[in-house]
Amino acid sequence: MMYFPVLAAVAVLLIVTAARDGPRAALAWCWAAGLILPTWMIYRLGAVQVNLRTATGLLLLACLAFHTGGISRYRLLLADLLIVAFVAVRIVTLVSSEGLRPSIPVVQSLTWLLPYGLGRLALQDAEDRKNLTRATALVCLVLGLWAVGEAVTRINPLLAVSQHGSWYVDHDFRCGLKRAEGPTVHPIFFGMMLVLLLPWALEASRRGRRGEGPWWWRTLPWLTCAGVLATMSRGPGIAMAICLAITVFAGRPKRRTVLFVAMTAACVLLFASRHAVMEAMHALGNETGETKYYLIVNGEPRPYTGTNYRLLLFEVYRDAMWNAGWLGYGRVGGDHHLPIEGHLEGLFSSVDNQYIFTILTSGYLGLSLYVLFQLAVFAYLAKLVRCPSRDEDLWLSGSMLGALVATALMMLTVWFSRDYGYVWLFTAGMAASWYTMPQTEVSRPLVVQVSRRRLVPGHPA
Asked: Are residues 198 and 225 in contact, defined by beta-carbon separation less than 8 angstroms?
């Protein structure tokens, strides 16, 4: 089993980096390294499944525990309270449906609080921003090349060794290309993860053009976008476009009025052409001609395709959502049946909409907390975009806002998998910490050389 040798290699990287550059530099590099590790490589501790990313996060937390002096610098935010309250609601609903089990709070904390907390710890000053840029730039290079290579050669290097991770193995193709999965279990998850890394690719490119990084940094936005397209997934492609649009809007304050008018016109045009857009979505998904398959939903025939599936979820689960109450049903799937029509249970057992899924599992209260948490994080980044200490900070904060908003919108078409959700929560944590720190800290010039002196907890690097 490769799980423990890989984890041991991460531990060695953590120890070496922490000894050389300090614990928060180790956090940046080991977190980035964890993004390349296969998400499907799991170790089971009873009912708790710990993948390599989670195990890496726990190692990082243990390392930082020896440097707790810096924790006092953090200011409690509304987003912190909202994510904790959301997890509490999740625990209550699961306990009510499954009974009291120790694994329930453990799993929920590892899924939601661990990555968000690591993000809060990851960005405290300019030194952290430097480490994150350098580490994530290397990851964008590796994953971008991986995605393009996998799509063209139809070979995933991980799956060449093991067939346990992929949900599709080697038979999922679009436009003659294999849908790249990378180290995740689904092309959509891989694409969403790359969209969330795009802000750091853009940051590295901007630094590279200023001579503050190697030449290949300037290629990273193109390579990362190519990686998103190599997944051949429509949702991540749309998310990438939204992220770039918001980035340009944020980074060009003098042109925001013109850009706003242009983007509004584009949205109106897309809405007016929605039928043609849907046909294009069907064609990209190899669904042309499949609309002859109809389902009876609430007594009415509805065309069924992979694209229409997402729209039909609102109708299929309409009564279940209406009757979910404040706390929802707890566990969904398996032996926990929901009040939907019997002939639809098999086809709609996967709820590919995080907001519907949250209503079902956590009720109206859970959904409210989840959405409010997202809005709080968006507000922090919007404040940084509106009142930056330097114009160049607009690009990173704007692109982070674009990536988080875009993926939040795409959660209308996919559930919150840890494959990309881990990166979303980590980014949200970084946004919250950036919002609280003195702006002179994060805006100091970034240089390539790494300081050899060790970071002192509680003091700027």
From this structure: yes
Query: Looking at the structure, do residues 436 and 293 belong to the same domain, yes or no?
Result: yes
- Here the tokens at position 110 are 């590892």
Same domain, 41 and 135: no
Region for 181 from its dihedrals, namely left if φ exceeds 0, alpha if ψ lies in -120 to 50, beta otherwise: alpha
Least confident window among 22-31, 37-46, 274-283 = 274-283
Count structural domains, the chain: 3
381-397 mean pLDDT? 80
Same-domain check for residues 51 and 178: no
Q: Is residue 423 part of a domain?
A: yes
Note the pLDDT tens digit of each residue in 302-355.
777 767 778 888 888 888 899 888 998 887 765 556 667 666 776 777 788 999
The verdict on 329 and 310 lying in the same domain is yes
Q: Are residues 336 and 431 in the same domain?
A: yes
If asked whether residues 202 and 100 sit together in one domain, one would say: no
My answer on whether 284 and 430 are in the same domain is yes
Look at residues 115, 47, 95 and name the one whose alpha carbon lies nearest to residue 418.
115
In angstroms, the Cα distances linking 62 to 67, 112, 202, 406 are: 10, 18, 31, 33
DSSP state letters, 309-372: HHHHHHHHTHHHHHT-TTT--SS-BTTB--SS-GGGTTTT-S---HHHHHHHHHHHHHHHHHHH
pLDDT at site 401: 96
On whether the pTM is more than 0.90, the answer is no
Residues 420 and 329 in one domain: yes
Distances (CA, A) of 9 to 13, 162, 212: 6, 19, 29
Cα 55 to Cα 11, 19, 45, 50, 62, distances in angstroms? 10, 20, 12, 6, 11
pLDDT average, residue stretch 110-134: 90
